[in-house]
């Protein structure tokens, strides 16, 4: 039996939104893929920038979707941010929390006192996503930071996925404060900072971890910063055009349509590929895609062209199959 992509790694770290589920529904094929990994005894972890749920709540959600998980496998930006504050501040310090109840609970569990008003003179502000965060919350945070409080952001995701399309994420809310204050947060905990991935690897003593994500600007860049290989799946935020335009620090080791890519023959999902069966690029008055094969293999081939400076988005089809592949990739 040929070695599969996943067989080269001693830990698989999954992003959640856009990879395993979308809001509260499983991504097609995700439950089956993770179930296969569990049956094979592959160590798993879940690292999420979502600060609106605690680790136990995330594990409960996963179990409810049919994905066996426990809280010890989940690393959230809320929990990691609270832990970072506990290392920086004396026990019992006041922290102004902008975000969901899960973030307040993590702050409280870390031995700190969550507050809501700048007049309570907090030592720090921690800012995470919450669906009810509004202007009044941002105003209190701005006043507290101007008064000398440290500013910690759980993450800076510009958007978050939804069934209706990308919606404003915590990064958009952080940007509002950044504009008002004229400065950046003192600390950003979540991806693309490498701490969530490093924590996951330390927990199980992993020497070679694989990060699986749907975002180039958080999951993949975070993996690069952590010195880990990565698999981009096209089930969430980043699409083929984003991948072709990716700068070097946001380029994955592998790309696949979904989590089924974990079980491809080792090397088949690599980008750029050494070779792609069925597809070829021809030069004749402009680069043309010729041959036949899967759309994802065509994308892998085009990555090689784009990342070497070629105009991959201007490639013309030279076969019916090529036309269909480019259309499926949104590159027609």
UniProtKB/TrEMBL annotation:
Pfam families: Hydrolase_6, Hydrolase_like. Keywords: Hydrolase. PANTHER family: 4-NITROPHENYLPHOSPHATASE-RELATED (PTHR19288), D-GLYCEROL 3-PHOSPHATE PHOSPHATASE (PTHR19288:SF95). Signal peptide: none annotated. It comes from Phytohabitans maris. This is HAD-IIA family hydrolase. GO terms for molecular function: hydrolase activity.
